[in-house]
Write a structure and sequence with these properties.
alpha/beta, 2,3-Dihydroxybiphenyl 1,2-Dioxygenase, domain 1, four-stranded mixed beta sheet, 8 strands
């Protein structure tokens, strides 16, 4: 069986669908984090940061959201930590405080939950991989 990529089926994008318990609150949350919103449909937006993105949907199943993890690899986790502190997740969104960055194996990482319970893991490699 031929590989789809080898048969002209190259991947253009690979984006997860992230659930939103309250679509408007989730859009505001991600904009506060620094994402740019692009409306795709009334119940679907693409959230962009740099050249990367994910799809935020006005759809919520607690079991899905509670088992969903987004991992974002960055070149400076401190910048994202500083942003999280300024946003004030407990005060603005009633969320638990994010965890300060810690070294875990080859990464320095912070993690926090979004308003729908999706866990975010933002990590910086301690040694950048060779190109």
């Amino acid at each position: 069986m031929p590989n789809p990529r080898d048969a002209g089926g190259g991947v253009i994008a690979l984006r997860p669908f992230v659930p939103a318990k309250n679509f408007e609150v989730s859009k505001r949350f991600y904009r506060d984090l620094g994402f740019r919103t692009e409306v795709i449909a009334p119940a679907l937006v693409e959230m962009h940061v740099g050249q990367h993105s994910f799809l935020l949907q006005d759809f919520y199943v607690p079991e899905y959201a509670g088992n969903f993890v987004m991992h974002m690899l960055v070149d400076n986790v401190q910048v994202w930590w500083d942003r999280l502190c300024v946003i004030d997740l407990p005060g603005r969104y009633g969320l638990e405080s994010p965890r300060a960055p810690v070294v875990a194996g080859p990464l320095k990482a912070t993690h926090f939950a979004d308003p729908s319970g999706v866990l975010w893991h933002i990590a910086q490699p301690l040694r950048m991989r060779p190109e």
